[in-house]
Amino acid sequence: MTRTDMPRDARAARGRKVLISGASIAGPALAFWLNRYGFAVTVVEKAGGPRDGGYPIDVRGTALEVVRRMGILPRLREAHIDLRRLTFLDGDGSMVASLEPHTVTGGVAGQDLEVRRGDLTRALHTAVRDDVEFLFDDSIDTLDQSGHGVDVTFRGGDTRTFDLVFGADGLHSRTRELLLGPEEQFHRYLGYCFAGFTMRNTFGLVNETTIWNTPGRAAALYALGDGDDVHAFLNFARREPPLDAFRDPEAQRDLVAAVFADAGWEIPGMLSALRAADDLFFDVVSQIRLPRWSSGRVALVGDAAYAPSFLTGQGSSLALVGAYMLAGSLAGQDHTTGFAAYEHGTREFVTLNQDQVAEGDATLFPTTARALEQRNDMLRELSSAVPSAERRPAHSALTLPEFTPMT
Question: Averaged over 271-277, what is the pLDDT?
Answer without folding.
Answer: 96
